[in-house]
Amino acid sequence: MNSKILLEARALCKTYEQAGERVEVLKGIDLALPRGDFVALLGSSGSGKSTLLHCLGLLDTWDSGEVIFEGRPLSKLSEKEQARFRLEKLGFVFQFHHLIPELSAAENVALPASILGQDRSSRARELLDWVGLSHKLKSFPWQLSGGEQQRVALARALINDPVLLLTDEVTGNLDRARSKEILELLRRIHSELGTTILSVTHDEELAATYDRRIRLSEGRL
Amino acid sequence: MGVSVLLPREWWKLSALWLLNLKDRTPRARRALVGHSVRIALVGLSCGLAALSLTLAIVSGFEWKLSEYVATTGGDMLHQNPWMNFEGLKARAALAPEEGVEGVEVFWAAPALVVGAEGGRGVTLEAARRYPSVRAFLDSDSTTSLTTESTIGVELGRALADTLKADVGSSLRLLVPGVMKGSLAAHVTAIRQLGIYDLESRWMKVDEAELRTLLKSKDPEAFANRPGDAHGLRYFLSETYHQPHSTRQLEAWQTSYREKLNAAEDTTLHEPLLKSWLEQRQNLFGSIGLDKLVLTVILGLLCLVAGLNVAAALVVLFLERDREIAVLRAVGLSRGQLLGWILIQGTLMGLASALGALVLARVFGVILQHLPIAELPSEVYNLSHIPLKFVWAEQLAVFAFGIAASLGLSFVLGTSLVKGSFLDTLRHRK
Questions:
Q1: Which residue in chain A is spatially nearest to B427 when comparing CA positions?
Q2: B15 Cβ partners below 8 Å, 6+ apart?
Q3: In which order are the strands placed within the sheet that holds A38-42?
Q4: Interface of B with A in 334-353 (CB under 8 A)
Q5: Rounded to whole angstroms, how far apart are CA atoms A35 and A49?
Q6: Burial A130-156 (b: 16+ CB within 10 A, else e)
Q7: Ordered per-residue pLDDT tens for chain B, 430 residues
Q8: Is B32's Cβ below 8 Å from some Cβ in A?
Q9: SS3 state at A84
Q10: Dihedrals φ, ψ of B416, to 5°?
Q11: A16, A134, A170, A172: which has the highest count of C-beta atoms within 10 A?
């Protein structure tokens, strides 16, 4: 086992049933993600990049193959173990932030820690300060701009100190300037916190700022 | 680092915020429908539980009034015998527990004929004398100053007085066949409204000691041939002994008395016929209990339907928040914890409904007391209004049932809900 490899996909296949037809989305994906990597997963719309990201993050199942994290195969994990794995090891940020509207920015960030039964409200404040929102701790999501909401979502993803951060089109809803801010933030997370980052994007220009790019086309890398 | 089974207090707060749907926290209009449906469901369950609470209070009210009536007229404990003499009665009374006794009554009953100015009627004559304590009875010499020329005072039931066209002060003649020859002069001292027409039409009461004195002086031979002086004793106990929902104290008194009688050297005292007020009207109380049970089951089922509405509103609330839940599932909320979260909301809704119901029932109760619909014909019920008695144990049961119904139904619907793949909603949807 190579200890430098954090996440690995071996011959990963995934098929969907769509309008009565079987659609092969992932066709034997082999992927190795070293610890500390900062990777962009590129591909056109419908190429299967989000599906691959969801499989790697245990948000979706696969038909055959294996996903290995820190040398441990993940296919045998129970639903409860999967949830715990996501809670302790992974961070997710999606195109839509889906913050809880009734909770303040600080409360939203601290929420995943409370699933673990921990009160990490001071850490939540630190993270919001770190993403440049120290003045918005008590603001509700609807009082924040799109870029600010996405930064809160990023802070939320970091609250349990994940080893791997998976992002799915995080800049998809933002203008160019806000998108660059988010990318700079991802770069800081990678360099200052040492978090491995795998980002799905279809934006070639933004992908160019990553250390490494992987291209997915018609279910193959 | 372990995942807690029970969700911490932040989730209770979040649940409450979701349910309250506060405008300053959720200004988006799309929340309004869910907010309304939750409120309507809560009001529905509250009303159902309030109806259950109020119905139980009304039936309990009748039970309490009846128990009070039975205990004050027939005694909390009836020690019945065939005819016996005073020595026998005193020997029995001497063994009665002193605790709680507020009076003891010697009584006998016999068929009699009462004749007034407008005609006569067969009645059940009850002769009774009440003593303030067992000691007072034991110390009494049971004689009066009446002579053969005296008239005896009688109390009549309202219906009997109407039949005889008698009023207070009216003169009557009283015949007690089998007990005395001839008749006694009597006068009406009081007219009692008993609330039950049939009972009133035959009810007549005289002082036992006065009647005995007159019988003895009028017909000494017949009196001497009587098998005894009375049929038995009635014990009147303090209020705590005639509560329909707590008969343990009464049963303890009865058991203690029975044990003392059975342990007596005089074997004629053994195996006494002791009847508590509850046993004296067992069929009536049994039928009220059955009525209460049937009403509780019917209203309980209605509450379950209302509870189903609450659970359905909860499901809608969660489905409407599918993306937020999906993200929480993505960051590590397990299905078990999601179900726990649903149950937190079910508990909160049940709690709110149950609290609302108890308040509503009290308010409805106060209003009911002032409505003409709550007025009762006193000649039938001996009561002017529908009686209400909120028994805390019953109200607590209604409260617990409200929470349990909401929680149970939330669990049933919640187990199906958490099996749904919320994570699908994260896929490419705008």
A1: A50
A2: B341, B344, B345, B348
A3: A90-93, A164-168, A196-201, A38-42, A212-215
A4: 334-337
A5: 20
A6: bbebeebbebbbeebeebbbbbbbbbb
A7: 344 445 666 777 777 777 776 555 555 545 555 667 788 888 999 999 999 999 999 999 988 888 888 888 888 999 988 777 888 889 999 999 999 999 999 998 888 999 988 888 999 888 999 999 999 999 987 666 666 677 899 999 888 898 899 999 999 999 988 777 788 899 999 998 776 666 678 889 999 888 888 888 887 887 777 777 778 899 999 988 888 878 899 999 999 999 999 999 988 888 899 999 888 888 888 998 999 999 999 999 999 999 888 888 888 887 877 877 888 888 888 888 888 888 888 888 899 999 999 999 999 999 988 888 877 776 666 677 888 999 999 999 999 999 999 999 989 888 888 887 766 777 654 3
A8: no
A9: helix
A10: -75, -40
A11: A170
Which H or E run includes B174?
A: strand B171-175
- Dist. CA B366–CA B362, nearest whole Å: 6
The distance of A166 to chain B (nearest Cα, Å) reads 11
How many residues are present in chain A?
A: 221
Kindly write down the DSSP assignment for every residue of B84-105, as one continuous string.
Answer: E-HHHHHHHHTTS--TTEEEEE
Report which of A173, A201, A170 is spatially closest to residue A49, judged by C-alpha positions. A201
Nearest in space to A71 (alpha carbons), one of A29, A158, A157, A10: A10
CA–CA distance from B308 to each of B17, B38, B162, B210, B303 (Å)? Answer: 21, 12, 56, 67, 8
CA distance B247 to B237: 13
- Partners of residue B331 in chain A, C-beta under 8 Å: 86-87, 91-92, 112, 115, 156-157, 160
Q: What is the pTM of this model?
A: 0.74
Task: Say if B375 is an interface residue toward chain A (CB within 8 Å).
Answer: no
Kindly tell me the burial class for residue A48, based on how many C-beta atoms sit within 10 Å of its own C-beta (0-12, 13-18, 19 or more): buried
Longest dimension (CA), chain A: 52
Q: Is B35 on the interface with A (CB under 8 A)?
A: no
- Contact state of A84 with B28 under an 8 Å Cβ cutoff: no
Q: Are B1 and A96 inside 8 Å of each other by CB?
A: no
Report d(CA A184, CA A190) in Å as an integer: 10
Which member of B27, B331, B430 has the closest CB to residue A86? Answer: B331
Q: Alpha-carbon distance A91 to A155, whole Å?
A: 10
Look-up of token digits 């715990």: A84
β-strand A38-42 against A64-69: which pairing, if any? Answer: unpaired
Q: Would you give the DSSP letter of residue B367? A: H
Question: Dmax of chain B from CA atoms?
Answer: 111
**Is ipTM strictly over 0.90?**
no
